[in-house]
Design brief:
Layout lengths: L5 H17 L7 H7 L11 H35 L8 H37 L14 H6 L7 H9 L1
Helix pairs in contact: 1-3, 2-3, 3-4
């Protein structure tokens, strides 16, 4: 018998969005950041509104990934505790339990990696280094960052990394 953790995750994601608004963090002067953050030559400088929006998205992602990670770890813990109850399971049941356990491990690992990326992006934003490619040092580009706020590589470097 397998348990589905999809419904609790959906509920948790909705509550994460609400909690993200409540997350308190030392406020960095958005006006100061508009002068610090680098953009591509053909882009306008970051506005205070854009910085505030990106910060909000990152905070929401952080909370969402924390909830997802906690739920995956709880589900995995429950599976591990129940693993001794498998006496008499046939091969199909044992295989299903193993597959479900591997899935939860993967979900937890993905949530942990996404959480680290979002926290790193927020740290860069606070430090005024947000938007600089960690590989070549060129600006990543506002449009890319607005679409994927956790991006740490420009498109050229990302494509090179994806090929390898």
């Amino acid at each position: 018998m397998t348990t589905s953790s999809t419904a609790p995750r959906a509920t948790a994601k909705k509550s994460a969005a609400k909690s993200a608004a409540k997350t308190t963090r030392p406020s960095v002067d958005a006006a100061k950041l508009t002068e610090q953050l680098q953009v591509k030559e053909d882009e306008s400088p970051w506005s205070e509104e854009e910085i505030t929006e990106v910060r909000g998205i990152l905070l929401e992602e952080i909370e969402q990934h924390r909830v997802e990670l906690r739920l995956a770890e709880e589900e995995l813990d429950q599976m591990m505790r129940a693993s001794g109850d498998g006496a008499g399971d046939d091969q199909a049941d044992a295989g299903a339990k193993t597959a479900e356990r591997e899935h939860e491990i993967s979900v937890a690992a993905n949530a942990r990696a996404s959480l680290r990326q979002a926290e790193h992006a927020l740290e860069q934003l606070d430090a005024g280094t947000y938007g600089m490619c960690e590989e070549c040092g060129n600006p990543i580009g506002k449009l890319r960052l607005q679409a994927r706020p956790r991006a740490t590589l420009c498109m050229t470097c990302q494509e090179k990394q994806d090929r390898h």
